[in-house]
Design a protein that fits this description.
single chain, alpha+beta, 7-stranded mixed beta sheet, 15 helices, globular
Length: about 450
């Protein structure tokens, strides 16, 4: 089986994604757009399953969390108040020789040095190391770079018309706090969940889907009493780790890393990362932060709006503290591919398959005729497919190429079961069902297929 530490694994997964319709390079026929990707017919199914499982777990199954879908464009004043205009910056340096720009913290990580905010220290490290792109010691001055995408609202490119593509979905929840309280009777503690696009003009990107300029977030803002924020922060760490295990992650590939004081964002008193063990190292797939009351109080001061909550128990108005679990859908997608990717040798040939959980897999089953050039078998396979498709969704029909090639195709996209219609089917109305991971086969009568599949997916 493929080692998760194999340095070539990222290349194999990237190639698999294009070959099997999971992920394509954005604007590829025009030369591509760096760190922008499109999800193909198979990838969009997997990605939607990730989002559905998160939404089902935290909105549909809970009475204390509601959903929201806020706009991507917000007034510039929102980002000034939140601190993003002043603080959402990365340190950047340019190689004078090749003109390539880098994030300073990424460079230091690559050089094997700890990142510190001391510019004299950073300058010394950069002067002693070579550019990864051209291998010359020619770094320039360290500068600051704001990662928000700027655009203009309306037909005139004037300062007063500046707006930003949101770098996070959270602020849409905070500015709607009063609207949600007034329209939906909620009692502390409660949460507001949102799934949506965010945009960050990253200086350096790489590792396929790991660091993107356009990405999707699943964010939850958990509003709680200040005195309960510590235990709620601990609760959400445990709960989110369990969720990853429930959707099929290997627990040994996950860990929680607490942030040191110097790592904390300006709004947080505590934060941590849930990290996954990629082939390129332990990397964050989710952040959890105790944002205290920074956001609600900041927006309240700026807008002169009352963003407090009246506590019926104490008969006092309080500004809730906020615990924020925030994960990137694209990073979870990539981590799932790493976790599921398997290689083995079968009868002298390499077999590649994705051991995705049934809830994440893009199709529940695939239906084939044993022979693609046998009209009777193809017609019968179509009948079985039509019999299943209205009750079991999504499923896939494939009659192209040999049966071996078709099995390899569904293995590579993680389909749990393949149903083959063969000559025996025409005699006794049974079909062969092949299980993806073990490749074991069993025969089931067509009339029992719906029951059999439902039992496997319960």
């Amino acid at each position: 089986m493929e080692s998760k530490n194999n340095k070539n694994l990222l290349e194999k997964i990237t190639a698999l994604c294009k070959r099997r319709g999971l992920v394509f390079q954005g604007s590829e026929i025009y030369g591509g757009l760096e760190s922008i990707y499109d999800y193909g017919p198979v990838g969009v199914l997997i990605k939607n399953n990730i989002k559905k499982l998160w939404w089902r777990e935290y909105v549909e199954k809970r009475a204390d969390i509601v959903g929201l879908d806020s706009s991507i464009l917000m007034r510039a004043a929102v980002w000034k108040t939140s601190g993003h205009l002043d603080s959402f910056n990365d340190l950047m340096v340019e190689c004078i020789s090749c003109q390539k720009r880098f994030r300073v913290d990424h460079l230091l990580e690559g050089f094997g040095f700890e990142f510190k905010s001391d510019k004299d220290y950073l300058k010394k490290v950069l002067n002693e190391n070579s550019c990864p792109n051209c291998q010359k010691k020619s770094f320039g001055q360290i500068g600051s770079f704001n990662m928000m995408f700027k655009t203009f609202f309306g037909p005139y490119e004037k300062t007063e018309n500046v707006v930003y593509l949101r770098p996070e979905t959270a602020q849409g929840i905070f500015v709607n706090f009063k609207n949600i309280l007034n329209s939906y009777r909620l009692k502390l503690p409660f949460g507001v969940a949102q799934i949506g696009k965010a945009f960050r003009n990253e200086i350096t990107t790489g590792n396929f889907l790991f660091r993107l300029r356009e990405f999707e977030q699943m964010e939850l803002e958990w509003f709680t009493r200040p005195e309960d924020s510590g235990k709620d922060y601990d609760y959400w760490q445990r709960e989110r780790l369990k969720w990853y295990e429930r959707i099929g992650f290997n627990p040994s590939h996950l860990r929680i890393r607490q942030h040191q004081k110097l790592e904390l964002a300006h709004y947080a008193i505590a934060s941590c990362d849930i990290e996954y063990k990629f082939s390129f190292g332990w990397k964050e797939i989710e952040g959890i932060a105790n944002r205290i009351d920074f956001d609600l109080k900041s927006h309240s001061r700026q807008t002169k709006q009352d963003l407090t909550y009246f506590d019926e128990h104490t008969k006092k108005a309080i500004t809730p503290y906020i615990i924020e679990p925030s994960c990137g859908v694209d990073r979870v997608f990539l981590a799932l591919l790493f976790d599921a990717y398997c290689e083995e040798e079968v009868r002298g040939r390499k077999r590649v398959y994705l051991r995705l959980s049934k809830a994440i897999a893009p199709f529940k089953v695939a239906v084939f005729p044993l022979l693609s050039n046998n009209d009777i078998l193809v017609k019968k396979a179509r009948e079985v497919y039509d019999f299943l498709k209205d009750e079991i969704y999504p499923i896939i029909f494939d009659d192209s190429g040999s049966i071996g090639k078709r099995y390899r195709r569904i293995d590579e996209i993680g389909v749990p079961y393949g149903i083959t219609i063969d000559h025996i089917t025409l005699i006794d109305t049974t079909v062969t069902i092949r299980e993806r991971d073990s490749m074991k086969q069993e025969r089931v009568e067509i009339k029992d297929l719906l029951k059999w599949i439902r039992e496997k997916f319960d």
